[in-house]
């Protein structure tokens, strides 16, 4: 479980740094998720952290709203999830998901870590930041996506696109998740 806690920390640190870098006039920029602007995208990630905490009976901490303070809202839920991942008893709590019986750590690893990487790319695209996904994380992302299955991944992401023939691994992954890189 320490591996999951470390991966979540690294991916959430990148996501937080991208939130910090949003220009004051960048909050309404449209993301590659056409129904979401930057603030909406961050709100989705915050909400997903809250949902994952709730699945194992934890009440999310009160913090600022995304409208008040996007970074503060994200950090509030991120910190609580991170603390729970670092507590072996809390990380091991199980629940019934639509994918079967999962622990909190598995849900964060297969759900939130994928969201942080992909929506971090979305955030970067919308705000003109470096959109690189750590190449060391890409094989893990593929494994996580495969573990969720085609139906599960399409529930949360768009239809797969055909990547260019010479596409790198990041571009192939993003195309599979419905994004043009």
Features:
MDMPI_metal-binding; mainly alpha; 60% helix; Four Helix Bundle (Hemerythrin (Met), subunit A); 181 residues; single chain; Mycothiol-dependent maleylpyruvate isomerase metal-binding domain-containing protein; globular; 7 helices; two-stranded antiparallel ribbon
Commentary on this structure:
With 181 residues, the chain is mainly alpha-helical. The protein has a single domain, classed as Up-down Bundle (Four Helix Bundle (Hemerythrin (Met), subunit A)). The chain contains seven helices and two strands, in the order H-H-H-H-E-E-H-H-H. The chain has helices spanning 2-20, 38-55, 70-85, 88-91, 104-127, 138-156, 169-176; strands spanning 94-97, 100-103. A two-stranded antiparallel ribbon has the order 1-2. Helix 5 packs across helix 6. The radius of gyration is 16 Å and the shape is globular. It starts with a helix and ends in a 5-residue tail after the last helix. The mean pLDDT is 94.
Q: Helical proportion?
A: 55-70%
Number of domains: 1
**Mean of all residue-level pLDDT scores:** 94
Percentage of β-strand residues: under 5%
The H/E string reads HHHHEEHHH
Secondary structure tally: strands: 2
Number of helices: 7
Shape annotation = globular
Gyration radius (Cα, Å) is: 16 Å
* Uncertain residue segments: none
Query: What can be said about the biggest beta sheet?
Result: 2 strands, antiparallel
């Amino acid at each position: 479980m320490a591996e999951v806690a470390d991966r979540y920390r690294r991916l959430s640190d990148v996501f937080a740094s991208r939130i910090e870098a949003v220009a004051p006039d960048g909050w309404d920029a449209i993301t590659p998720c056409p129904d979401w602007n930057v603030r909406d995208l961050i709100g989705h990630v915050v909400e997903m952290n809250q949902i994952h905490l709730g699945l194992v009976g934890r009440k999310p901490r009160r913090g600022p709203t995304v409208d008040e303070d996007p970074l503060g809202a994200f950090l509030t839920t991120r910190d609580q999830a991170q603390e729970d991942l670092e507590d072996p008893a809390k990380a091991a709590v199980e629940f019934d998901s639509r994918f079967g019986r999962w622990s909190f750590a598995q849900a964060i690893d297969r759900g939130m870590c994928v969201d942080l990487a992909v929506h971090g790319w979305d955030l970067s695209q919308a705000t003109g930041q470096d959109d690189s996904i750590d190449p060391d994380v890409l094989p893990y992302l593929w494994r996580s996506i495969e573990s969720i299955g085609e139906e599960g991944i399409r529930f949360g992401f768009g239809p797969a696109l055909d990547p260019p023939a010479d596409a790198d691994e990041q571009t192939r992954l993003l195309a599979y998740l419905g994004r043009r890189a």
